[in-house]
Amino acid sequence: MARLKLGVLISGRGSNLQALIDACAAPGFPASVALVLSNRADAAGLERAGAAGIATAVVSHRDHAGKQAFEEAMSAALEAAGVELVCLAGFMRLLSPWFVERWRDRLINIHPSLLPAFPGLDTHARALEAGVRFHGCTVHLVRQDMDAGPILVQAAVPVRPDDTEESLADRVLEQEHRCYPLAVRLLAEGRARVVGERVLLDADMTVPEPLLNPVP
Ligand code: GRF
Description:
- The chain is α/β, with parallel strands linked by helices.
- Helices cover 32% and strands 24% of the residues.
- The protein is built from 6 helices and 9 strands; from the N terminus they run βαβαβαβαβαββαββ.
- Helix 1 runs parallel beside helix 6.
């Protein structure tokens, strides 16, 4: 079985990268990490890649004259590694329309909210502030608007009355680590296809029951 080659872009701790590395280590998983690319040499995620024997590259925006040159260097590194699907995993630079179009439908992101609610930063604090009963995370294809694009996988996390930003972030992060490998698997196995601005699944894989929070 040919495995889909992933390029994972990080800027920091890399726990989602670790989830992808762990998933790829399982026999039969239909993808492998070909390259971990960071825009920061001090990203902790680079050590995770090194420990797993995965090739790494640092492409710093500071070493390039402008955004286009920076993104061309990233794109060249990804292509040289044979990357077929780019996974943004805590990559903290906004990508230009050029990069987004260059990798259109081969570029996915994980975001810590149930999009389209709470794009941008501080999602957990904003969810608590809004008093939503469910929060969560989303893996989606990247489009030019920030934190927008066809949705692949979401996990809903109930918000508890005693939640703090940290406790909620921890529970959402656990689900992020389940969602990202699932999204990669669906794409790698051809079970998710982009049609217009939606992702269609080739079978009904919907959870069986609606969820209520609080419990009636
Ligand atoms: C995650 O919360 C992810 O949803 C967001 O950035 C964070 C990255 O965390 N895009 P990590 O580096 O994967 O641990």
